[in-house]
Design goal:
23% strand; four-stranded mixed β-sheet; 35% helix; 11 helices; nine-stranded mixed β-sheet; 15 strands; alpha/beta
Length: 335
């Protein structure tokens, strides 16, 4: 099975040893970005993945391509242009202090991507799944238009479309409203992922609290079933509605679980009690990628797909950097 993922690659700068952004003289650098994280995870799990993005044709863009190729991605359709790669600066949470993130993405190569720059019909040839994200719609009107160009062509060509709602409040600065744009993107989708806040925004229903402090916390299946029955009416094309659940008890102590609704019944997974968390970045992307991997191999076994997804995201919590480097055998071993 071949999968296409589409989004902006970012360079993450982060301080070590729980330093604040204003402290110290050095930063660690890692490539990441939600869609790139998902692509790498899918590749390491054994899938054939084509990654589409736009990068500046300079030393930074070339270095990024080498890294993506090293991770096993097909980068043949990367669009060259623009002046710079997008970046963000990350301050790790510590004890009572929340994490902090500062984006520097305006006027990046992907920010200035326009419809018509990517030959989507060639990109989608012999492809089964297209994975898109709400983040690309948040950056600029041009990037949003390019995203809708892609999903319309993927729809015409009969691909399965998987959408990660991926709402990032701080990115929506060009005048469009997330609550209007993201549901439009979701109407094209066969599989939709989101966390509690994202489903609240896109579905228009209040979130159901997830307050687990231990692995025996009872998940309210009836409440989630009622919620997704209503949401399913708004998105008649979608067949798999997937919700990621995370409660951050403290900086280094997270509890992860999830639910899946297939229009007939709701499935839940075990709760992973992770203490300590090594790096929380990319946990949701690992969850999405592992689900798509399982879906392509065991489409009709919803419980197994959900269980595999949660195990992969739990493992990502133990790995530094944005990419989930866990193999299929490692995920199965945890299961």
């Amino acid at each position: 099975m071949r999968i296409v993922t589409f989004g902006e690659v970012l360079l993450r700068f982060s301080k070590a040893d729980n330093q604040r952004i204003s402290q110290g003289n050095t930063m660690n650098a890692n490539y990441g970005g939600s869609e790139a994280n998902a692509a790498v995870s899918l590749s390491i799990l054994g899938n054939e993945v084509r990654y589409v993005t736009r990068l500046p044709k300079n030393a930074m863009g070339q270095a990024c391509i080498r890294k993506l190729s090293e991770m096993g991605l097909d980068t043949h359709f990367v669009c060259w242009g623009g002046e710079r790669i997008g970046t963000y600066f990350f301050e790790q949470a510590a004890s009572l202090r929340s994490p902090r993130m500062v984006y520097d993405r305006k006027d990046s190569a992907f920010y200035t991507l326009k419809p018509g720059m990517i030959p989507w019909r060639e990109v989608f040839r012999d492809v089964d799944v297209f994975h898109c994200s709400g983040i690309t719609c948040a950056l600029s009107q041009d990037a949003a238009d390019a995203t809708f160009e892609a999903v319309r062509i993927a729809d015409e060509m009969g691909l399965t479309i998987a959408c990660d709602i991926n709402y990032r409040k701080n990115l929506w600065n060009y005048g469009a409203k997330a609550a209007e744009v993201l549901p439009r993107l979701m109407t094209y989708s066969d599989v939709i992922f989101g966390d509690a806040g994202e489903w609240e925004l896109a579905g228009g229903l209040p979130r159901i609290p997830f307050l687990a402090t231990s692995s025996d916390y009872p998940i309210d299946m009836a409440a989630y079933t009622r919620m997704f029955e209503q949401i399913a009416e708004k998105f008649p094309r979608c067949q798999k509605f997937i919700l990621g659940l995370r409660n951050e008890v403290s900086t280094n102590h997270h509890l992860l679980s999830g639910v899946l609704y297939n229009r007939e019944r709701l499935f839940t997974a075990k709760i992973y009690d992770i203490n300590p968390v090594v790096d929380p970045m990319g946990v949701g992307d690992a969850y999405l990628a592992a689900y798509l991997h399982a879906y392509l191999n065991r489409k009709d076994d919803d419980q197994r797909c959900l269980d595999f997804s949660l195990a992969a995201s739990a493992l990502k919590s133990t790995i530094n950097g944005d990419f989930n480097l866990s193999t299929e055998d490692e995920v199965l071993s945890l299961l």
